[in-house]
Amino acid sequence: MFCVIQEIETQKVNKNGYSKELCSYSFSIQGIQYYTYSYSDERFERPIKKAYRISIHHSFRENGKVKKKQFVLCTVNYYDLATDSFTIYDWCNEKINMVSEVLKESVDDIYELVQEKIEPLTEQIQEEFVKTEEYKTHEEHERITTIYALNKTEFTRKYEVDGNEYDKCYDVFGELRNPEYLEKIKREYRERKEYEEKSRSYQEDFWSNYNKHFGGSSSYYNILSNNHTNEDKETLKQFYRVLSKKFHPDANPDIDTSKEMQLLNKLKAEWGV
Q1: What is residue 109's three-state secondary structure?
Q2: Which residues neighbour 68 within 8 Å (Cβ) at sequence distance 6 or greater?
Q3: Lowest model confidence (mean pLDDT) among 40-44, 119-123, 155-159, 240-244
Q4: Which residues, including other chains, have CB under 8 Å from residue 244's CB and lie 6 or more apart?
Q5: What share of the chain is helix, strand, coil (3-state, %, to 5)?
Q6: 178-219 residue pLDDT tens
Q7: 148 — phi, psi (to 5°)?
Q8: What CA–CA distance (Å, rounded) separates 32 from 164?
Q9: Which DSSP category does 223 fall into?
C-alpha cells in the first residue's frame, strides 16, 4: 500500500484570490457614526492551473497474477495548499475510513502515508506563494486588522466601555475620525472614576467611624479591581500566544514588529495573564 499524488492541469484560471484592498467605510445608526472596514471586490488572479489528485494504491496477487487497486481520496487545488486551506481530515476522512475497511489496514497508517507524501509538496508550494504580491498584500491586511483588534481591546479595557465605542472614534487604520466623541468617552470615564473615588472615601469614613464609636470588628479591604473572569483570562492567554507567535521578530525577518510586541507585552501585563 502506498500513496500517489498526481499533478493535473485545471481548465480555468482562478480569479477568486485574496482581495486587493482593505477599505475603511462608515455608516450611521440613529445619528451615531460608526467606522468599520471591508475588503474590495477586486481580487488577485491566481494564474497557476494545477491540482493534485491524491490516491492510495494497493498491489496484491490473485491466481498467481499481480493486480492493483486504486482509491482516489480527493483532488486538491494548488492554491488550497498554498493558503493552508487543505487538511487531510476535512478532505479525506470519509474515503480513508472506506479504504481502511476494504483493505483491512489501520486508519492511522493511511493518514501517515498521505501526510508523508503531501507535506513536502505543501512546503514547496507555500514557499512559492509567500513570494507573490497576493501573499504580501494579504499579510499586510492581516497585520492591520490584528493591530485594530488589539487597539480595540485595549481601548475597551482602558475606558471600561463597550467594544463598539472604539468604532465610533477610530477607523481600522487607527486614524482618529471623531475626536469629539473620544473626548466625550474620556470625560465620562473621568466622571465615573471621580464618583467611584468619592464612594470609596465615603465607605472608608463610614467603617472608620463605625469601628471608632461602636467597636466593630469589620475591616475595610482595598480590593484591586479586575474585570476579567478566569474564563476570560484563558481566552486572553490564547490570544497572547497566537499574536506573539505572529509578531515575533523571528517570524518577521523583513518587518519591524517591535511596536506590536511592545503593545502585546503591555496588554499581557495589564490583563494579568
Answers
A1: helix
A2: 57, 58, 59, 60
A3: 240-244
A4: 261, 264
A5: 55, 20, 25
A6: 999 999 999 999 998 888 887 777 666 666 665 665 554 444
A7: -60, -45
A8: 11
A9: P
